[in-house]
Amino acid sequence: MLMTTMRFTKRSGLLGIILMLMMAPARTQTLEAGVARVDITPPPGLLLQGYPHPERIATGVRDPLYARVLVLGVGSARLAIVDLDLIATFGPAYLTQLRDGTQRDVQNLLVVAIHTHSGPTLISSSAPPPDAWEALAVAKVAGAVHQAATHMVSARIGVGYGISYIGHNRLRRNRDGTVTWFEPNWTGVSTAPVDPTLAVLRIDDLAGSPLAILVNYACHPVVFGPDNRLYSADFPGVMTREVERTFDGKPLCFFLQGGDGDINPDYAVTPLEQGAAEFCERTGTKLGRVAAQVAQQIRTVADANPSLQFAQDAMRFRARWDAQHWRAADPQASASIASKTQPEYELPVTTVLLGKRIAFLAMPGEPFVDFQMAWRARCPTRDCFFLGYGNGYYGYFPTISAASWGGYGASQASTWIQVGAGERMLDQGLVRVFEMLGRLKPSPEDLQQ
Questions:
Q1: In this structure, what are the phi and psi dihedrals at residue 8, rounded to the nearest 5 degrees?
Q2: Distance CA 298, CA 160 (A)
């Protein structure tokens, strides 16, 4: 009798455990995050890019140029956001090399640049590319991605917004129909359109200690002008240091450049003898203090149902200009397409949805600020981030209206993709977000009788 009771008890206990496991809710996935930073400052002697001065050779370093890496993961899905203190992303071949070198760590890669005009040339066909430095920089970034991916921790996130007026629209439309190039703005009175919105994404570990602070803002980093011969991240470098100093150096701060195609800082291209270094410090500190204040007020939370979705669409566009002009307009023109009368380009448009409420859209060039404002106005998620210089560089993307008015970035050779490309890329990003949210179905719905 005793043995029978014991067998029954064991069997009942086993059945109970099975029932408890069946009835218990499935373990939810968690958002994980890891960060890393690596110095990619080139040696002196390379051509600086951003101004039409062919003899602008770097003689030293004013402040280091970094690559900042954030790796996000949910389950098996992983994304690396690589933020470069450069004028643009690496060239197409080197981006492919970076993807190949990081495949063991992440499936998805979003590489962006702050667009400093005090860094090495990356998008010019008039000077030999700095192959040795670029190859070394790519290897360093791949190592940083691996470091971030192998030191990920469970994370919680939050978003906040602020307002900062450090810049102006540099294309002034006149009553007679002309457009005036408006480089510095010593009056401090903002011109339109301009977006003063500063969006901040804060990522903490589960204990509430900040890991990363991502600051999304639209303004050309051109406080230093053509007389500067030192490598510098311009005002974004000052901004990131200010935010990190406020948080006692705990988080890594990123500057995610937005739709800055027609936006300059008020103290643009200031000569060194007129205080460029001071104005750069003032501009970056002003922006950094707003960013830090916003970040301090954010209360991060762990997403109960985290998810990470990524899409990169290859969209085809024609060259804007006819055969007589497009070769001079396109810095990436090569002998293989030299015989074409009007080439087509395949532009990567990148969309990311984090959870169900934070959406990113990245265009591969210099979008005008109207696209940033339109993205925030039309995107269905609560929080929206708009990035320029994403996964490539294909010149300026003016709005159709801006292209009709003209001016630098709107009608010069720097716009070498057909008019309307920006609008189509924006629409594609919106379609992707609606698909990721499940609001656009892959098949038609049956009519309910």
A1: -65, -40
A2: 6
* Biggest CA-to-CA distance, the chain: 106
Residue entry with tokens 């901004």: 239
57 to 43, 134, 192: CA distances (angstroms): 11, 17, 35
Contact call for residues 141 and 284 (beta carbons, < 8 A): no
Q: Can you give the length of the chain in residues?
A: 449
How do beta strands 108-113 and 366-367 pair? unpaired
Taking the CA atoms of 14, 18, 21 and 24 in sequence, report the sign of the dihedral they define: negative
Long-range own/partner contacts, residues 404-407 (CB < 8 A, 24 or more apart)? 405/171, 405/173, 405/177, 405/179, 406/179, 407/171, 407/179, 407/180, 407/181
Alpha helix (H) residue ranges in 257-342: 276-297, 323-329
CB atoms within 10 A of CB 314: 9
User: How many Å separate Cα 380 from the centre of its chain?
Assistant: 20
For 227-275, what is each residue's pLDDT tens digit? 999 999 999 999 999 999 999 999 999 999 999 999 999 999 999 999 9
Count CB neighbours of 299 within 10 A. 10
Tens of pLDDT, residues 36-74: 999 999 999 999 999 987 789 999 999 999 999 999 999
State how far the Cα of 124 lies from the Cα of 46, in Å rounded to an integer.
Answer: 13
Residue type present at position 131:
D
**Tokens found for residue 178:** 């002309």
Helix axes 92-102, 131-149, angle to 10 degrees: 30
Contact 75, 354 (CB under 8 A): no
Yes or no: say if 369 and 241 are a contact pair by the CB < 8 Å rule. no
Q: Is 0.70 surpassed by the pTM of this model?
A: yes
